[in-house]
Design goal:
This protein has 107 residues and is an all-beta fold. It is built from no helices and ten strands.
Length: 107
């Protein structure tokens, strides 16, 4: 069993993944949408919005997120987050996990 609680004092973090356990996929969180345009060549990212609202941008398409929403970003899709409400919180799952698969994109 693994049990962790998010650190509310940091913007984002990772609970668990192949680097620290036998769990084959990373599970992370964010206390705000992080505005860093990037893509992954091989990984999918699954965002599960638990609280608040945020604006995601996927391949230049604006998506309004709210509690209860799920967003799947597929490999090759550029994405970032814009404004988030003060109470915003999401979980993120990356699959299949590929070390070094994050590629920053110039805006």
């Amino acid at each position: 069993m693994i049990h962790q609680t998010p650190d509310r004092n940091v913007a984002k973090g990772w609970f668990v993944g192949p680097w620290n356990s036998a769990v084959p996929i990373p599970v992370g969180y964010a206390n705000e949408g992080v505005n860093e345009l990037h893509q992954h060549d091989q990984m999918f990212e699954i965002y599960l919005v638990a609280r608040g609202t945020s604006t995601a941008v996927v391949n230049q398409q604006i998506i309004q997120l709210q509690a209860g929403d799920m967003l799947v970003v597929e490999p090759g899709e550029t994405h970032s987050f814009g404004h988030s409400s003060l109470d915003y919180f999401h979980f993120v799952i990356q699959t299949p996990f590929v070390p070094g698969d994050k590629i920053l994109v110039e805006k």
